Amino acid sequence: MLRKPDGPLSVMGFARYEKREDVETERLIDRALTWQETFLRPMEGILFHAFLGNLKGGFADIIFARDDQSFDAMGATYADAPSSGALMELLTPGTIRLSRNRVLKPVTAPPSDFSCVEFGTFEIAQGTDAGERDLLAISERIETEYLDRSDNTRLHFIGHGGENRFCEVTFGRSLGKTKRLCDGYVGHPVCQPLLDLCDPASLDLDFWYVLA
Asked: Which pairs from 35-39 meet CB under 8 Å and 24+ separation?
């Protein structure tokens, strides 16, 4: 797991994909680790990366960048890096989904002491008069009155992926406790307002554990 010195993080990238059926998971993990060490680690402004897996056999990269310029520079050189090509050749192309999000309240330092990432995307329901400021206010209340009361929570934030697409991200000490906290949103007086703003058909939520 790549975690550089503390610094503000304002952009998060999340890439989800599946490996080819003939590829062993151990081989994919090794190439992801090589990509992390040889491509991401030397890059200025790329402050955090973790390679993740889920219980459905999927894999993902989560990356924090200091700013848009740093994230763009990574994207511009990605295809030219040998370790990128070596990783990509193990993936099923049609399964790759990329998400770039602007963190609404910049993260002051990369997360630590976690093993699980909850990543969910959603759209605000039509006819709902709400925007970034409303989501941020609800998010901050969820943090102070619900999530931060558990020693499982390491980091939580809301991101904007463009147009009407948003994400909620939680880093937790364990997958089980992180999932239990997420399930507790339903009907909770502090958390339910966030669910009420979402278009249910747009929800895309999963839980991921750290592989590298």
From this structure: 35/81, 35/83, 35/84, 35/86, 35/87, 36/1, 36/2, 36/212, 37/2, 38/81, 38/82, 38/83, 39/78, 39/81, 39/83, 39/84
